[in-house]
Amino acid sequence: MDPALTSGVTAPLTLLDAGELASDPELEAGFAAAAHGILADLVRAGAALGWVEPPTRQEVAELLGHVRCAARSGDAALRAAYVGRRLAGFGYWLRYARPTHRPHADLEKIAVAAAAQGRGTGRALTAALIADAREAGVEVLTLDARGDNTHALRLYRSLGFTEYGRLPAFVAVGEDRYDKVFCMLDLRRES
Question: Residue 91 carries which DSSP code?
């Protein structure tokens, strides 16, 4: 494990948006590989991030390329959390593609390295993405989570998200079944 993430000394957390990340060639060059490492480790440990098996480096690179392109056009926001020069987590939202749904976005992913969990990284990333959505004119920010992901659901509720639906036993991981929980944050009420 990285001493910057696990030492008793609390190093400051730095949040970068897509533009700030792009302005640092060293961080930008290693971002996709570091993000892949976080996702692969979390999925191997059973995290509810949309994969049953860890994604390949290519899958993650393509996904992040799509998000970064969408961020440049205002259709997404990407945030990366660093402790020193080490990626501690990342997250993003994407606007819905249909013209009638354009004022809305889906908080697609928040992924925090295991060593950085419990230190406010997920909260900082999510709060920054909410602020980015508000600034981009997003009216409703939605997300879905696996029902057993109680820590994430508690975090989302504490930031104002409310549950608006649930599909019982919808997510299949081997023989196990989990609810799919749908949440929303109505930013129109906060204007």
Answer: E
